[in-house]
Amino acid sequence: MIIRLAAQYEAPSVVALYECVVNAMRDTPFDARWDMAFHPTADGLRAAIAAGNLFVATDGEPYTSPRIYGAFVLDDEQDAGYTQASWSVAASDDEVAVIHLLAVSPTVRGLHIGAALVNAAARIARVRGKRAIRLDVVANNDPAVNLYRSCGFVDLGIFTLDYGGGLVMPAHLMELDLVSTETVCGARTLLTPSSPASCELCPRRCHARRASGESGVCGATASLKLARAALHLWEEPPISGDTGSGTIFFSGCPLKCVYCQNHEISTGNFGIEVDADRLSEIMLELQYQGALNINLVTATHYAHLLPAAVEAARARGLFVPIVYNTGGYERERAVRELEGIVDVWLTDFKYADAALARDLSHVADYPDRAARALARMVAQVDRRGGIMYDGDGTMQQGIIVRHLVLPGHADDSCRVLDLIWDIAGDIPISVMNQYTPNDAMRAAGGELARAVTDEEYEQVLDHADELGFTTMFWQEGGAVSESFTPAFDTTGVLAAADGPILPRQ
Ligand code: SF4
Question: Is the minimum distance from the CB of 202 to ligand 1 under 6 angstroms?
Answer without folding.
Answer: yes
